[in-house]
Amino acid sequence: MTLQISQEILDQIHRHGETAYPEEGAGFLLGADGDSRQVRAIHPLANAREDSARHNRYLITPQDYLQAEITADRLGLSLIGVFHSHPDHPNRPSEFDREWAQPFFSYIITSVNGGLAVESRSWRLQEDRSAFIEETIETKN
User: What is the pTM of this model?
Assistant: First the structure.
């Protein structure tokens, strides 16, 4: 499993996580699915979670989802995943992430330490929802 993404879009994801810090930042990955999944754009979101939980949780509302679907459709793309940041925490999915994830989506998680994006990794939930499997991020220019 490979997720192709341009360095420019990955940089946008990193900036979003840095801007949201010390809270989690999130958004949708827009692109195409095939032999390898390709991210062609992102749809950043404001964190809709209550103030007291934003440091380690994000919330995507039904309206956020609808707007992302509209944006993807307008661009001739599909929703292929979600990105979010882990402030001062490793870029591995939490149990909370697993409970709320969808098996089809790619999940890019960026570790943001002290306000600076450090590294991103991507994950896909197994069909039986038991665990995530890491997918390779292939950056291109």
Answer: 0.94
